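The methods section describes the discrete structure representation at length, but only in general terms. What matters is that the chain and its backbone geometry are given together, residue for residue. For illustration, here is how one protein appears when written out as sequence plus structure tokens:
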Amino acid sequence: MPDLIRRIDSFSEAHRDVFELVAPAFVVPGGERAKNIPALVAELQSRLVELELDRHSYVVGVGGGALLDLIGYVAATTHRGIRHIRVPTTVLAQNDSGVGVKNGVNAFGVKNLLGTFAPPAAVINDSAFIDVLPGRDKRAGMAEAVKVALIRDAAFFRMARDQGGSAGHFRLGAP
């Protein structure tokens, strides 16, 4: 979504009577690599301090699961916990990390070694992000949802299967 920053700015301007965007959007690397950069954690924490955010403020993370893990960790460990809002942009993130309470970063070669349990103040699942994903990414996320449903939630799996069409297949969108 190449015009996302413009959209955020427009939304903020249109709703300035109810909230204040204290800084422009800050773009960080996405994917698992973002969780492997200790200097990025420190830089983000430093930005929150410089912006004078506190426990009454909100940090909004927009991205996939790894980015949401990173932002949640940064928010939870700054000022003993700044509230955060997650906006997951992938199918997997909307099914998993977007609604989870685990936040973490990789350290010393260990995945999610440093982390917290801090639920987001809100989760915004916007289907517009999913609409622009390539079909392969949509299918991969749905496959993960099916896997989790098969392991942990038979009732959800049956409901999804039964609503998937006359042949009982999940609708995964165009390839």
Remarks:
- Strands lie at 58-63, 83-88, 102-107, 110-117, 122-123.
- The first strand starts at residue 58 and ends at 63.
